[in-house]
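Sat 14:20. Reprocessing the chain from the morning session after the first attempt stalled halfway. Input below, unchanged.
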Amino acid sequence: MTVTEAVHLFVHGQVQGVGYRAFASSLARRMHISGWVRNLADGDVEIVAEADLPTIEIFIERLEAGNGYSRVDSITRSIIRSSGYASFEIEH
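Finished this time. Tokens:
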């Protein structure tokens, strides 16, 4: 049985206006990760992701690499309680 973990991420850098939310959403869907992504007023991107821990680790590595247009300076993460999201959405 696979255990679902959840992480709360804040992505810092040049991550708005460069297609980063769409990149994160597409990546999450391909990796069967549920949760959401949204822009924050301070220029960061916030993500909640739910999947098994190895999948989450790979997801974070790919988020750090960015989409070719973004510049990721750092990602702050914390483990949170899983909410049981059914899909991955871009929130506005």
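Residues 36 and 89 are 5 Å apart (CA to CA).
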